[in-house]
Write a structure and sequence with these properties.
The complex is a heterodimer of chains A (182) and B (487). By secondary structure, chain A is α/β, with parallel strands linked by helices. Chain A has six helices and seven strands; from the N terminus they run βααβββαβααββα. Chain A has a five-stranded parallel beta sheet, with helices on both faces. Chain B is α+β, with helices and mostly antiparallel strands. In chain B, α4 packs antiparallel against α6, α6 runs antiparallel to α7 and α10 packs antiparallel against α11. Chain B is globular. Classes of the chains: A alpha/beta (182), B alpha+beta (487). The structure holds iron/sulfur cluster. Iron/sulfur cluster (SF4) sits at the interface of chains A and B.
């Protein structure tokens, strides 16, 4: 009997704080059970820097705050059969979207010209730095998202439930107690 | 040219190699390397490429929201931001001295965080390099590979982290982004049931932490040629130290030493931090470059974090960790150790100390008390400083008479290490890449140097820039949602 092929899971953090990834790791020892069924592709936990073309599940933390985020998100959509928005930032921009009512230049000025203790005022402008977007955007505005996991971050149990449902070939469902927004 | 290899004379003639994203670190960063046709290295930079804008959008919010908001800077050590902000707000609400219960609850939360973060960093992120080699098979060089080859090590890493996260959960309500600390104190004490649950595990957590120190000490001392020199540069170092110069992660005064270990300043009240530290902006990174004002930007930069703390303090209050500190100091041979890979060793000594402190605290009935908050004469400005897992973290706020924040300035741990990390990767590039065909394994050497500092590039992204570029946001049907161009 041949072993069942492991599902390829890719993850990334866009304009997020990594808290959702931490909550993912909060499945604790269940990680080892999970590893019997999945392998990680591109992820902050591996050194694979671009998605393989045959990823089964892509998990996105964080919204879009710059051009690079948009690029990575498209890469994930192109290469992953199922795309999941993990956490408040991916779903609606989250806390970073608090900057949306402010003009970009005002924030720039504040951080690089008027904040205390600066020796020189200068706005970083090297071409290596990706273009920031005027506002932080949720990821579903740019690509189709298959599933949404709310919470800041979603709990480890919620993440576990969604993944195990998908592994079992079921439609993932966050039942009572797992759906929360804080 | 101020710093060697920071800026090439003629970048337009050179070939660019990028490590993007830097992986197995927390946050978003990339490295660019410029090489000529003989593969000679001319420029190496670690860029922080993302912006989230906290310092500005916190303004206008009521101050009591701040400890909950700022932890969203970083989900890896949210407790550090939560507590540094709370400490600044203690000053603002005039809480000169917290109740014993409040102070100890916060300490417990913080030491839980040190434990979980150091475990995560060592086991989940760095152990693959240390156990398999820097240019080992890229597909195995991760925690999954460790779980296959060294299942017991991987399991302990996961369980150590879990314990630290559980300490945070019972003190802050949630493992990630809890709400335990409030200006002037905390909002809950420990229950007997919570305490007993943690007490069940703490003894083997201490033992496993001791084993972890042994593991890294062995790895380090078995290959001193590599470990004592990889990415090495000399620099000043800084941390807060507690009473009597003890290692203290939660509270104390600022102490800095030069590369020979001589005191630069000591007993500095951190409310005055900006008389001692200044920051410089450079065009190629959103992360600023801090340095000691008294020495100036060229030589005044420094390192923070475990390697700085363990060598900056005079002693550690808990017996096992103090024993390990002495071993380390003996190994360094009387002068400060500057090798970046020694960060791992000192990090595990700190993890052991955190475990021992948690054990002591769990036996302290003050944690079960009911006196949680104090207040005093309201102030308009406050600074909170804490030793986060990655180093000294500064939060500075001003609040107006309507209780709204009018100014926020943060210097996060990783920013303090900005120049140091750039120096380390330039050293590695010169030593390993210069004149060689660039391979994946060689590039990982650069990342190994960055990982030693355990940078939290996530925290470091609170600024933004502008470029002459154009970008369009297109929805799934191909319609333009938003477009932006700048020049
Ligand atoms: S949703 Fe919350 S935990 Fe997740 S990335 Fe955003 S701020 Fe962090």
């Amino acid at each position: 009997m041949t072993a069942k092929k492991k599902l390829k899971v890719a993850t990334t953090s866009l304009a997020g704080c990594f808290g959702c990834h931490m909550s993912f790791l909060d499945i604790d020892e269940r990680l080892f059970t999970l590893l019997e069924h999945i392998e990680f592709d591109r992820s902050p936990l591996t050194d694979i820097k671009t998605c393989s073309p045959d990823c089964d599940i892509g998990i996105i933390e964080g919204g879009l705050c710059n051009a690079e985020n948009v690029h990575v998100l498209r890469e994930f959509r192109k290469n992953c059969k199922i795309l999941i928005a993990m956490g408040a930032c991916a779903i609606n921009g989250g806390l970073p979207a608090q900057r949306n009512h402010l003009p970009l230049t005002t924030i720039l000025e504040e951080v690089y010209h008027t904040s205390p203790g600066l020796a020189n005022g200068m706005i970083p402008n090297d071409p290596e730095l990706p273009l920031p977007l005027n506002q932080v955007h949720p990821i579903h505005e740019v690509v189709k998202i298959d599933y949404f996991m709310p919470g800041c971050p979603p709990s480890a149990d919620a993440i576990w439930k969604v993944l195990t449902d998908l592994l079992a070939g079921k439609e993932p469902e966050l039942g009572h107690g797992l759906m929360h927004y804080d | 040219m101020t710093y060697q290899l920071e800026t090439a004379a003629h970048p337009e003639t050179l070939r660019r190699v990028a490590i993007d994203p830097v992986s197995r670190v927390e946050g978003h960063g990339k490295v660019t390397i410029l090489l000529d046709d003989q593969n000679k290295v001319h420029q190496v930079r670690l860029h922080i490429v993302e912006f989230r804008g906290f310092e500005k959008f916190i303004q206008g919010r009521p101050y009591w929201e701040v400890p909950v908001m700022v932890q969203r800077l970083c989900g890896i050590c949210p407790v550090s931001h939560h507590l540094a902000a709370s400490k600044a707000l203690d000053v603002i609400v005039g809480a000169k001295k917290l109740t014993a219960t409040a102070e100890k609850m916060r300490r417990l939360m913080h030491y839980g965080q040190m434990l979980q973060s150091h475990a995560l960093h060592f086991f989940h992120l760095c152990s693959p390099d240390l156990l398999f080699g820097f240019d080992s098979d890229v597909t195995k060089r991760n925690i999954v590979g460790v779980a296959m080859a060294h299942p017991e090590t991987a399991k302990r890493g996961v369980l150590l982290r879990r314990f630290g996260q559980e300490v945070i959960r019972v003190t802050a309500g949630k493992r990630v982004h809890g709400t335990g600390a409030i200006p002037g104190g905390v909002n809950k004490a420990l229950t007997i049931a919570e305490r007993d649950e943690l007490l069940k595990d703490i003894y083997h957590i201490v033992q496993w932490s001791r084993d972890a120190v042994q593991l890294i000490q062995k790895v380090h001392t078995q290959d001193p040629g590599l470990y004592n020199s990889f990415g090495i540069f000399r620099s000043n170092f800084m941390s807060i130290v507690g009473n009597n110069g003890d290692l203290d992660f939660y509270h104390g005064t600022l102490r800095a030493r030069d590369d020979n270990g001589k005191i630069i300043f000591d007993h500095v009240d951190y409310q005055q931090y900006n008389q001692y530290i200044e920051e410089e902006v450079r065009p190629w990174s959103y992360m600023k470059f801090p340095y000691f004002k008294s020495i100036g930007k060229e030589h005044g930069w420094y390192k923070v974090g475990p390697l700085a703390r363990v060598q900056n303090c005079c002693q550690i209050s808990t017996p096992f960790a103090e024993h390990e500190r002495k071993e380390f100091v003996d190994y360094a041979g009387g002068s400060p150790m500057h090798a970046p890979l020694a960060y791992h060793w000192t990090r595990m000594i700190e993890m052991l100390h955190a475990a021992e402190v948690i054990k002591e605290l769990l036996h302290d009935d003050d944690l079960l008390g009911s006196d949680l908050v104090v207040q005093g004469k309201r102030q308009s400005e406050g600074v909170g400083v804490i030793e986060a897992p990655r180093g000294t973290l500064f939060h500075h706020y001003r609040v107006d008479e309507n209780d709204l924040v009018t100014m926020a300035n943060l210097i996060v741990s990783t920013t303090n290490n900005n120049q140091a990390m750039n120096e380390a990767i330039r050293h590695v590039a010169r030593r390993y890449l210069h004149g060689h065909e660039v391979t994946e394994g060689l590039l990982n050497h650069i990342e190994v140097a960055i990982r030693a500092f355990d940078p939290c590039l996530s925290c470091a992204t609170h600024a933004l820039g502008k470029m002459p570029l154009e970008v369009e946001l297109v929805d799934p049907e191909g319609r333009i949602v938003h477009s932006l161009s700048r020049s």
